């Protein structure tokens, strides 16, 4: 198998645990990376790189692991520009807007949903995302939820069943009946197509008992839990996530000290979604408080047409640095290794021998420029599974 060396890298972010002390990003200066097939086989100083058949000159720029976007909602149809406009004139965000997208998604053909999904995945790839998770949650019938998962599974292994996004309109007067459907017939139809189960634990969506019922039923079917928790208000979601060993508690905007302690003393990652706070003009999650307590933090886009219509991990990094108390190093780490931890993976989000060759080349000398030069399209090269895609 022929190998390729990417050399003349001014700053290489490896996230290599063995290089992490005192630098959490495992930085290597004047570096090179060797790729063979779909894997990284060597990283280190350029001068020590082994000879290979092919050579790519990074031109004194920065290379980092491809972004791991561990939270998105990309199987949808329609658009909620009006709702966004109304919010920017002062109307608050509420979970009820989800039903607008449910109606549009149910009415769309498979081909339309697939075209939308493909479009936003291409957009994300151009901005450096090489691994992504995506969810159902805009179908809310047995057939529509299973269809969403089938379509998603054509594009990623990280597929999440979110039948419990909100109570389906047909069950408005019978939420218990909807939970029974989500944990029964719908789960049976969806489990074969998903790796994860999720629930929106929030006022106006599902309470703690309902969320527990959903995640427990999913676990019994072999799905692993993750949860939308503490987004719009304080609530039981984070504690439930830790209790059930969820891979990730997502949003984490309203946290008590006990919630922060619970996350810090668990394997549950706190996934922060600054695009949602940006697009709903909500208070920012306090990343500093979580990091100082010792919690693992991930950053993701939450890309969806309602609360966060961005596919851009660089944008989320810039917001997290400006408004959530993260350093650029912490934000880049959260968008790469943090996302991988939220998906319980070690084969992505780091550039070490044996990991997938998922790399981003920036038109900048350092990863810090992702926050230092917000809004500038710095991603100039993307390799996914060893193949150059951008
Ligand atoms: O993560 N919070 C729940 N779900 C999405 C919002 C979906 C929507 O508004 O359509 C979120 O923000
Ligand atoms: Fe979400």
UniProtKB/TrEMBL annotation:
Tagged with keyword Metal-binding: yes
Cofactor: Zn(2+); Fe(3+)
Keyword set, alphabetical order: Cytoplasm, Histidine metabolism, Hydrolase, Iron, Metal-binding, Zinc
E.C. number(s) listed in UniProt: 3.5.2.7
Chemical reaction(s) catalysed: 4-imidazolone-5-propanoate + H2O = N-formimidoyl-L-glutamate
Pfam families: Amidohydro_1
Binding note for cofactor: Binds 1 zinc or iron ion per subunit.
Family, per entry: Belongs to the metallo-dependent hydrolases superfamily. HutI family.
Protein name per its UniProtKB record: Imidazolonepropionase
Lineage: Bacteria, Bacillati, Actinomycetota, Actinomycetes, Kitasatosporales
Gene that encodes it: hutI_1
């Amino acid at each position: 198998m022929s190998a390729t060396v990417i050399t003349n890298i001014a700053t290489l972010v490896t996230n290599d645990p063995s290089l992490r002390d005192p630098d959490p990003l495992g930085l290597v200066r004047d570096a090179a990376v060797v790729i063979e097939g779909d894997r990284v086989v060597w990283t280190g100083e350029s001068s020590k790189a082994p000879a290979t058949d092919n050579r790519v000159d990074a031109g004194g720029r920065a290379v980092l692991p491809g972004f791991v976007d561990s939270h998105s909602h990309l199987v949808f149809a329609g658009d909620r520009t009006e709702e966004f406009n109304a919010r920017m004139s002062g109307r608050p965000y509420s979970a009820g807007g989800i039903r607008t997208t449910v109606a549009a998604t149910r009415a769309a053909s498979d081909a339309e949903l697939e075209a939308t999904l493909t479009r936003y995945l291409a957009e994300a790839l151009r901005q450096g995302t090489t691994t992504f998770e995506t969810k159902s949650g805009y179908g809310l019938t047995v057939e529509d939820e299973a269809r969403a998962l089938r379509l998603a599974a054509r594009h990623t292994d990280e597929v999440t069943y979110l039948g419990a996004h909100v109570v389906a309109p047909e069950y408005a007067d019978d939420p218990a009946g909807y939970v029974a459907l989500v944990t029964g017939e719908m789960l049976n139809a969806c489990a074969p197509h998903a790796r994860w189960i999720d629930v929106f634990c929030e006022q106006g969506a599902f309470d703690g008992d309902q969320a527990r019922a959903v995640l427990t039923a999913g676990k019994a079917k072999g799905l692993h839990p993750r949860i939308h928790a503490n987004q719009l208000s304080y609530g039981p979601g984070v504690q439930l996530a830790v209790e059930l060993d969820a891979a990730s508690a997502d949003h984490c905007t309203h946290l008590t000290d006990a919630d922060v302690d619970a996350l810090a003393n668990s394997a549950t990652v706190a996934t922060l979604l600054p695009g949602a706070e940006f697009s709903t003009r909500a208070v920012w999650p306090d990343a500093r408080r979580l990091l100082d307590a010792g919690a693992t933090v991930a950053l993701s886009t939450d890309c969806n047409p309602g609360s966060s219509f961005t596919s851009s991990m660089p944008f989320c990094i810039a917001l997290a640095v400006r408004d959530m108390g993260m350093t650029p190093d912490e934000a880049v780490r959260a968008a790469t290794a943090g996302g991988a931890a939220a998906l319980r993976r070690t084969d992505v989000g780091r550039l070490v021998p044996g990991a997938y060759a998922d790399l981003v080349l920036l038109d900048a000398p350092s990863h810090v420029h992702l926050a230092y030069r917000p809004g500038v399209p710095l991603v100039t090269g993307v390799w996914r599974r060893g193949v150059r895609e951008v």
